[in-house]
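A protein record pairs a chain with a discrete description of its three-dimensional fold. The shape at a given residue is found from the number at the same position. Here is what such a record looks like in full:
>
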Amino acid sequence: MKKEYRIKKSQDFDKIIKKRQSFANRQFVIYYEKNNLEHMRLGISVSKKLGKAYERNKLKRYVRESFKTRKDFVKNYDIIVIVRAGAKELPFLEFGNSLDHVLKNSKLIIKEKRV
């Protein structure tokens, strides 16, 4: 994911989480805040309780890859995804479906225009 699509700073994470706009399911918690950019930005958090570094990195890769295919349909928000233990056993295809569920219920996905 390109640099302009990432949230890395601790202050940015804290600011977005303090707004308390969130939605959750068994696999993910997302916090979001409107930004003034023309695209979304993504921050990912995976707890050390979910496993060793290679397991946490795999979960982060899954989240990034899922957002790569959805970034054109997500509004211009800063989004923080916190991965829960339930996501650990999900195969990649269901991983994306679970993220879609969270994004749709928080109304962050732009509906596709049909011609």
The mean pLDDT is 87. Residues 70 and 79 are 13 Å apart (CA to CA).
